[in-house]
Amino acid sequence: MIKRTETRVIELGKKEKGLYPSLPLKIGGGNPVVLQSMCNTKTEDIEGSLSQIRALKIAGADLVRLTVPTKEAALAFGKIREESPLPMVADIHFDYRLAILAMENGADKIRINPGNIGSSDKVKAVVDCAKERNIPIRIGVNSGSLEKDILEKYNGRVTAEGLAESALKNVELVENMGYHNLVLSIKSSDVLMAYHAHKIVAEKCELPLHIGITEAGTVWSGNIKSAMGLALILNEGIGDTVRVSLSADPVEEIRSGQLILETLGLRKKAVSVVSCPTCGRTDIDLISLAKEVEKIAFSYPDKSLKIAVMGCVVNGPGEAREADLGIAGGKGVGMLFKKGEIIRKVKEEDLLSALREEIEKYS
Hints:
Strand 14 and strand 15 form a beta hairpin.
């Protein structure tokens, strides 16, 4: 079992009125790792953003971030928050006035890079507004926006040490303004650099850490890089919130993040799917079948069971004995099994509907 690094606790998202009243979401201090994604809609598109947020909630997200690049987006942010089933983070890049406007319009948390906000007076204006409303600030630094003096210190190279130094420097800036309700994130697309930077920061800082491999890539390459990077970091006990960054539908980020956390024992298992790698004995389209079973599995986020998809009716049930439910296909026919025992035989075309029936009955 992974021993989590002890960090400070922050709370956000308490909502007493509206469609989705909720208790505060706790980040850090050994609380469950928070799984989040970011909408890729235009924030000004209120209905489109709400539709995506609802889909993320169903998929298992705990928190969602939206970009606020304009005044119109900040005003729309408030209207979205009224109907959002998830706490919302306002993502601010340059204009400190937008950070303030987003907080005035219901942001549960804001994300800024103090180095991009500008002068210390502008940063202080943001901090003062957050302090007045007790809104957490996520301080984010990444390998693409290191300060010039830090780059010069490391001979113009981006390094783990430089990333960590930048992060701690920005934390110190905000804490010296009298505010400590903070989350810290350090992002790099280099897996090992991210790992080493997080280790350095975790030893010197008690803030909750948001972790992820930035600009990881497509569903294929991004999932591999993210799984490797997040597993390395999480296995050290580091990480209080997680995002898998993919060039894909944000729902895919939640599915991937959930599986990574489940695999490491950091999140309650939902429906998981295992399948055999196929061989010459396979008489069904196992690859397509496994994909369909995976789609079914994602529609039951509140269930906790393992499903096996096997290509051979002879060896399938025995090889997948540890699965709660499973199917094994043959030529035109298939078997359903439970805990390794065959419970019924069905036509190949009825396998999926029969499996869904068994999932719904399973408790």
